[in-house]
């Protein structure tokens, strides 16, 4: 029992689904958590951040309301969380492989739930994948929802460093100023030096605004039935492995050249986000052409509104679902009520 993984049943739904499943994706074992009040509901696939910040072990605590309206799918990506393997070939840790994995996951969900299209939500690093998937494979997706949207990594990291320098000076924080003074504009390219900047970014509430990420993740993970105690160690190792082998390539990402997407785009940004600075996401959003696009501010959040303001975030996502689906089918509201 101590090392057993399971996900709680959903007892109040018609054809409910609560399934923790291991699949062979892209040549390696990867894990999906699928939960919903009915397997007839629209599918919502979350692309977690990082690289390596797997969320099967804690995200379900924040998604219970979503499970009433979607089949919510959390995917621990290649090399992360439950999908980490010590013998995983580092050469497979590249963006194109992750895009291929995401397509394979998407196709699996389309076939399993008999849906031509699904919804995707990309958070931070996952927002890079989300935009690329939306651009290349619009036929697979109803809409793209971006949280903490990445646009231009180099510009974003420079703005982030400027933010912590400014906050350190305003606070007269000598230790922060001393440690940050040792960093150069391109120090973010070295993930070990990046850790120094991120430490102070967290201290000055540019990552999580109201509480630390540790206070959000760790208590939930310790109580998780989807992760056992050894999986927490797996989570840590996977996060380190993913950053070590992907960070250089991720730092070259620039999505500014993408100015048109063929599916609806909805961005959710924290007012205090300087992990992926909101200014760049605003510029990207303003230039973007899409069938529908909306911007939603989360005033009490930084980089993780889905975890800092989950009630508002969930309400907003449900509203977007109805907005998109009613556009496709005027009778969707009645159909949805009969399923949920």
From TrEMBL:
GO biological process, one term: proteolysis
Organism: Paenibacillus dendrobii
Residue span(s) of domain AB hydrolase-1: 42-168
Coiled-coil region list: none
Pfam families: Abhydrolase_1
Keyword terms, alphabetized: Hydrolase
Family: Belongs to the peptidase S33 family.
Gene Ontology MF terms in the entry: aminopeptidase activity
Any one of the GO CC terms: membrane
Protein name: Alpha/beta fold hydrolase
UniProt xrefs under InterPro entries: AB_hydrolase_1, AB_hydrolase_fold, AB_hydrolase_sf, Peptidase_S33
């Amino acid at each position: 029992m101590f090392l057993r993984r399971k996900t709680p049943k959903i007892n109040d739904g018609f054809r409910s689904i609560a399934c923790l499943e291991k699949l062979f994706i892209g040549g390696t074992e990867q894990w999906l958590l699928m939960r919903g009040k009915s397997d007839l509901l629209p599918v919502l696939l979350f692309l977690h951040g990082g690289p390596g910040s797997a969320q099967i072990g804690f995200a379900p605590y924040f998604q219970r309301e979503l499970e009433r309206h979607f089949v919510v799918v959390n995917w621990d990506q290649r090399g992360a969380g439950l999908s980490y393997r010590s013998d995983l070939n580092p050469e497979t840790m590249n963006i194109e492989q992750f895009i291929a994995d995401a397509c394979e996951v998407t196709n699996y969900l389309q076939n399993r739930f008999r849906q031509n299209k699904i919804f995707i939500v990309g958070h931070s690093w996952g927002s890079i994948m989300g935009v690329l998937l939306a651009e290349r494979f619009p036929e697979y997706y109803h809409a793209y929802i971006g949280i903490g949207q990445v646009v231009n990594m180099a510009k974003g990291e420079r703005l982030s460093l400027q933010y912590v320098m400014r906050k350190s000076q305003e606070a007269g924080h000598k230790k922060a100023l001393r440690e940050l003074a040792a960093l150069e504009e391109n120090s973010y390219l070295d993930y070990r030096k990046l850790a120094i900047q991120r430490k102070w970014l967290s201290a000055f509430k540019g990552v999580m605004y109201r509480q630390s990420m540790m206070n959000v993740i760790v208590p939930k993970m310790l109580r998780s039935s989807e992760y056992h105690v050894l999986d927490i160690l797996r989570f840590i190792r996977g996060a380190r492995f993913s950053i070590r082998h992907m960070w250089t390539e991720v730092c070259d990402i620039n999505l500014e050249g993408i100015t048109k997407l063929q599916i609806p785009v909805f961005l959710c940004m924290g007012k205090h986000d300087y992990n992926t600075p909101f200014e760049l996401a605003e510029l990207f959003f303003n230039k973007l052409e899409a069938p529908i696009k909306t911007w939603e501010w989360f005033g009490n959040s930084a980089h993780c509104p889905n975890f800092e303001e989950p009630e508002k975030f969930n309400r907003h996502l449900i509203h977007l679902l109805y907005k998109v689906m009613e556009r496709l089918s005027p009778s969707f509201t009645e159909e949805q009520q009969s399923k949920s």
